Amino acid sequence: MTNIIFTDKQAPALISNQTISKTNCPYCGVGCGIEATVENNKVIAVKGNALHPANLGRLCVKGSSLHETQGIENRILSPRVNGENVSWDEATSKVAKHFQDTIAQYGPDSVAFYLSGQLLTEDYYVANKLMKGFIGSANVDTNSRLCMATASTAHKRAFGEDVVAGCYDDLSAAEAIFIIGANPAYAHPIVYQRMIKAREENPTRKIVVIDPRKTATAKDADLYLAIKPGSDAYYYNGLLMYLAEQGKLDKDYIAEHCQGFEQTLQTAKSQFVDISAVAVACDIELSLLLESYQIFAQTDKVVTFFSQGINQSSTGVDKGNTIINCHLATGKIGREGAAAFSITGQPNAMGGREVGGLSTQLAAHLHFENPNEIDLVKRFWQSPNIASKQGLKAVDLFDAVDSGQIKAIWIMATNPVVSMPNANLVKRALKKCPMVVVSECYENTDTLDYADVILPASTWGEKHGSVTNSDRTISVHKSMLKAPGEAKNDWQIITDVAHKLGFKEAFNYQHPVDIFREHAALSGFENSHPYDENRAKNDIYRVFDISALANISASDYENFLPTKWPINAANPNGVKRIFTDGVFATKNEKANFVPIIAQLPKILPASHQVVMNSGRIRDQWHTMNRTGRVAKLMTHSNEPYIAVNANDAQRFQLADKQLAVLANLGAEYIGRVNITDEQRTGEIFVPIHWNDNFSASARVSALVNPITDELCGQPEFKHSPVSIKPFNAVWSGYLISAQTVNCPTSYWSKIQLEQGHKYLLSDKQELGNDETFLANLYPKIDDWLVLKDDQKNVLRIAGFIDNQLHCFFAASTDLSLKFNSRYIEGQLHKALPIKTRFELMSGIDSDGKDDVGDMICSCFQVGEKTIQEAIKSGHCKSVTSLGEKLKCGTNCGSCIPELKTFLLKN
Ligand code: SF4
């Protein structure tokens, strides 16, 4: 049937008890392939899979640390109902009974599932089928709503289907790359390195970065435009106008393959007297604007690479369409090196879209708007009760939980108490909800506090199934490890509940390949290309078609080589680029230009506020359950921070490296002030990762207004007006601890160490002069040392159990005092002689000798001071020579943008 090439059936054995298994990184949307070395049910090493097309052997620091995230510590090992361990049978019976009773009494729309881009496609497929096809509601949404719902809707409006036409190879082939609303140097490092490598090979290639924030990506750009936040659609409408004025349109392409151009151009023009008005609207110099427009107009192969800066907006769909409009207008689409490329945040955001995991989709790129599409899915699933209309989108869904409309919710593989906008409302809603079921791998997530039923799920290394990355590449995630305790795969848990709801026959899956085959068969069911001579009259064309895999054998599934969809009879080996023939998935096969009136964000800041932008940092992933366990990943950024411009620091009386408080919606965020020229005046940036498990008050989403894009419901995470003021601490310090503790201070932030934890502490309350402060935290300490250094104004306290150092605390009312605790961290758990005890107490943490500065290279633990000294010595004049001397930048490459910045400044 097909020519699909499969890998070896058996992974090569290394030594007797070691195997190498091919799998994928579970973090970002790049979807890197991994070779994992497994020994005794443990991954002992990972490296990039040189044959995987997404990464060609490279991994960033997060991916290359994956094996360090394992361990039974903090895993949920048994199902629980109301806090008590129960059997799987009891837990799933409880869930099924409650859902059944609720549906019987209040109807199918009284229940909901909230899923995640972390789930595998098979998990997603089963959950979506159960809710939409059998329970009869479309109340199944996903955290992908927070990430790429806008881009998905923009694709559908323009192309007729949610399709990313290009692929990663286009990033190497492009002559110019426009990066807008994205910081791939941090958020998608491996594709970013691909762009940089291509420019190194051919320096005439240009990288243009458009972003209000001077990110690591922006610092490495050939041209950087610090536009006003939210003005992206003005920029691209202006570009369309410029292309028309300069005679740079591809009129043949527009005439043959598109519709709606004139109206779109006139709409763009209606907002501007001339191009200089665009520069004013975007708040950038006209000369820079024109230089960038010229690059786009005069370059044949252009990729626009966009992500959350475009997506997380109240007009994100429109912004996506202004980008696509410019690519259609110049025919820069469906060709090598020419694409409007939306990169997803999560590892399987595209897989979720394939199965229809958003409440606004039905399944397999079929939708509710066309009754024939509902009928097709109904017949395929033999559905007794298929949903006939869209369900609630994430923000509306949790509002409905809050109002009592939804009375039972099942949350899988996500942490909405941390990640949803207005996150305190989500807390309140879940507290009130009669039944909250949470499928989760790790203890202590903020959402678990509200669960009535907790279902232990398997995680990376244990799961088996497929994912689709941002360029349509389907890979199979291999199961390499036995899940601990009673943890199960998500598809198994959902299937168990489906059986108890009475749907055994339709959910009779024994293995993920059974689900994958069905998913593949649905994608090809009554689906044929408009020019297929065998096309049946009622066929509904979808580009997403993987029907060539509908009969895949279990071993071929196991050894499946990464392949880009569509994968069907016409394209058995997959397809690199889509729309190469100019045939789109609309009714008349023409792409739609979409007329857009550009708009600024919905809520603008009051005079006492700044605009808060939120996003990812380099070494952490989402709510840190996994990456927060790896000591080296906590060294580059180790606590919540607030990046702020010097003008705003002065205006709001903020001091560098001191704490400040942000407030909105009755919620607060406390973070360390970082005064930087990376921010425009009036705008701040905060990381999204910290939560109640890692810091006193850093759930940034609690401050984000629940303002959404009307077309797709994606929240405006990138633009939240907030107030800002100093924290007014009276002392600050740190605590090194062999155990986790509940710090009673009004500010604390937890950092994972190789052995133990470090807490950064501050308070507005005075601190006493003895160990009373710590005694309540450590009742088992049998020996305290307390020393007050009046000269330096430092209080130091060490606690020992059986002569071994168990905790060490140091604090000062001098807030500018910089502690360096590296030496002391190394003494934890050790029996210390008198001499070492004396060293600890006498101020080794503040003598500055051991201070290597902020950690820049996480892989080899190289600090900023060490790098600066090497540069100043004159021996290191390039990234290569720094790597040769210090090793920094020679493994994952994530720190290379920062190394370049240091070199430039010297
Ligand atoms: Fe994982 Fe990094 Fe690759 Fe993203 S770029 S998939 S985080 S290794």
| Broad structural category | alpha/beta
Strand order of the largest sheet: 5-4-16-15-14-6-7
Q: What fraction of the residues are assigned to beta strands by DSSP?
A: 15-25%
Total number of beta strands: 34
Main beta-sheet strand count, sense and barrel state: 7 strands, mixed
User: Which descriptor suits the 3D outline?
Assistant: globular
- Fraction of helical residues: 25-40%
Which radius of gyration do the C-alpha atoms yield?
A: 27 Å
* Number of helices, where a helix is a run of at least 4 consecutive DSSP H or I residues: 29
- Enumerate the spans where pLDDT stays under 50 for 5 or more consecutive residues: 1-13
What small molecules does this complex bind?
A: iron/sulfur cluster
How confident overall, as mean pLDDT?
A: 94
Report how far apart the termini are.
61 Å
